[in-house]
Amino acid sequence: MSNKLLSSNKTTGPKVISLIQQMPSLITIKIKATSESFNETFFGNLDVISSRVDPTTRSILVQAKIKNNNYKIIPGMLINIEIIFNEKESIGVPEESIIQQGTRTVVYKVIEDKTVSLTEVKTGIRNFGKVEILSGLSAGDKIVTEGVSKIRDKAQIKLINK
């Protein structure tokens, strides 16, 4: 079987089967496994996902491959699985540090001489009080997170680490 995805206007017959058979090699679904028996987190990948949903419990049978170097997880043990999806690494800042100025989105970036510079940023996803920064800041940049309404561009500040 080739590594190409098949595309066609018709999605019936052998082409659908070929596409489904190729998908598992292209997609890796990460998981995090925990147990109430001990305070440790294990990581792994989903290996098999059943095509049937139990109508009573609305659950789906899955098989996972988990890194279990110390053999703490034993067969038949009850574990909780959290599926990790849409995971990506990006710069995130607290929502309260973002300022909307008309159509612009800005933050106060701390410059080396302890002054602030109004810096335009492009934002992405908002999640749990954090905002993804797509452009305008780099990893390691310091920004003002509290009192943004009380300062102005090029103002002197006193750094407080929290």
Fill in the keyword field for this structure.
162 residues; conserved putative lor/sdh protein from methanococcus maripaludis s2 fold; three-stranded antiparallel sheet; 1 helix; 10 strands
Mean pLDDT: 79
* Low-confidence spans: 1-25
- How many separate structural domains? 2
Oligomer: single chain
Strand order within the widest sheet?
A: 3-2-1-4
Based on secondary structure, the structural category is: mainly beta
H/E element sequence: HEEEEEEEEEE
Main pleated sheet: 4 strands, antiparallel
Radius of gyration: 24 Å
Q: How far do the termini sit from each other? A: 55 Å
Structure, described:
With 162 residues, the chain is mostly beta strands. It has two domains: 14-84, no CATH class; 91-150, conserved putative lor/sdh protein from methanococcus maripaludis s2 fold, CATH 2.40.420. Helix content is 8%, strand content 40%. The chain has one helix and ten strands, in the order αββββββββββ. The protein has one helix at residues 14-26; strands at residues 30-35, 38-53, 60-66, 80-84, 91-94, 99-101, 104-110, 116-120, 122-127, 130-135. The strands form three sheets. It has a four-stranded antiparallel sheet with strand order 3-2-1-4, with no helix packed on it. A hairpin with a 2-residue loop joins strand 6 (99-101) and strand 7. The longest helix has 13 residues, at 14-26.
